[in-house]
Write a structure and sequence with these properties.
It is a single chain. The chain is α/β, with parallel strands linked by helices and 242 residues long. 44% of the residues lie in helices and 12% in strands. It is built from ten helices and eight strands. Strands 3, 4, 5, 6, 7 and 8 form a six-stranded parallel β-sheet that branches. The longest helix has 17 residues. The radius of gyration is 21 Å and the shape is globular.
Length: 242
């Protein structure tokens, strides 16, 4: 007879693993379940059972290979967020809105800046720019010191637990991208900082390679993938308090 361990040894599982564990369990469909039964009997069973087990044991469950790799990258390079408040800074309004939509859909909050930080942002952006979170930095691209000032201010905001920075190529923002590498590296280990810095081949190759190659921060090719990585950092942080 197999004895069931006392309940006190089963819950919570917050110290079961010393390192983060991410799982991608295939076989969520009926056909997939049958295929997994015939192929890997030791891991066979209904998908819902595994989903519940992963949650109880502090394993982050993802639903595709791309997200598995993206999440592992974020966990390797970023500290965990202390709360759900996220700031989205974008060179164009559209990518910023896309990231916000995904964040809010999956449990993150678009942070409200503290009054001093909001006033500082107001002073750095020209009239008619979107100043509240998400911040549209596009109107300030010709002023690289303003871009750096906005990023620095938001990173210092106590209401912000993580930052998503989206910078899609435009001719006006070349100098701005080249001027913020050191600032991003400086802050990357203080709060989770996830970026989508993207350009056509040959434009920002050196800058992107410098950020990614240094292991300073996690960079992704689309706003949605950047946002999803931040979402999964927060999901894991909630499962592993303390």
């Amino acid at each position: 007879m197999i004895r069931r361990p006392p309940r006190s040894t089963l819950f919570p599982y917050t110290t079961l693993f010393r390192s983060p564990v991410i799982a991608y369990k295939t076989g969520s469909s009926m056909v997939g379940d049958q295929a997994s039964l015939s192929h890997t009997g030791s891991m066979a069973g209904r998908h819902e059972v595994y989903t519940g087990a992963f949650s109880q044991t502090g394993i982050l469950n993802v639903d595709n290979t791309e997200t598995l790799l993206d999440t592992a990258k974020a966990m390797a390079l970023c500290p965990m967020p202390e709360g759900p408040g996220i700031a989205v800074l974008s060179g164009q309004a559209g990518p910023g809105m896309a990231a916000c939509d995904l964040c809010e859909e999956h449990g993150l909050e678009i942070a409200r800046f503290t009054e001093p930080i909001q006033q500082k942002i107001n002073g750095l952006l020209p009239p008619l720019a979107l100043r509240t979170n998400p911040v549209d930095m596009g109107p300030a691209w010709y002023n690289s010191s303003a871009i750096k000032g906005i990023i620095q201010a938001v990173m210092c905001d106590d209401n912000v637990d993580g930052i998503i920075l989206l910078m899609m190529f435009a001719s006006a923002n070349v100098d701005a991208v080249r001027g913020i590498s050191d600032l991003l590296k400086e802050w990357a280990q203080k709060k989770p900082l996830i970026t989508c810095i993207l350009s056509p081949p040959g434009i920002w190759d050196e800058q992107i390679e410098g950020l990614e190659g240094s292991g300073a921060l996690a960079n992704y090719p689309t706003p949605e993938r950047a946002a999803r990585a931040m979402v999964n950092l927060w999901k894991y942080r909630k499962m592993k308090p303390g």
